[in-house]
Amino acid sequence: xxxxxxxxxxxxxxxxxxxxxxxxxxxxxxxxxxxxxxxxxxxxxxxxxxxxxxxxxxxxxxxxxxxxxxxxxxxxxxxxxxxxxxxxxxxxxxxxxxxxxxxxxxxxxxxxxxxxxxxxxxxxxxxxxxxxxxxxxxxxxxxxxxxxxxxxxxxxxxxxxxxxxxxxxxxxxxxxxxxxxxxx
Length: 184
What we know:
With 184 residues, this protein is of the alpha+beta class.
């Protein structure tokens, strides 16, 4: 859902609030609770949940390990749920020809640097660079090549674009900014 006019282009960026992250967070927390309950059940010597039998698990060392993994999983699940709640990584890329400025805005973790905003001049953009790595885990990323600076990624590293979609996106942006496209 991009917005584009003659002078302005805005590309929204999805953050961590995705269906796959929701599924992983839910599975992680359920598994961690299960591990914790089995570990505590082995300590108490009776089953806290009838479905999860702990009769054959000795508290030392298996029960302690189960508790440790359960607690670690709960902390990881809490972290994942927080990133989903805060939608870390979401934002937008704004290209404003009238002002001659590019704004890259992203939401970060709460605190002093929650809002991440990078600005630079359109005249400093040399090209749009496409990085394509095929194989077991393909990687397709668009970058802005800027004079005297490091390349700035425009898409998420794990964004699942087909080669055609990526080429179209790069061509539209290069046409809008009137710069060339470089492949890698």
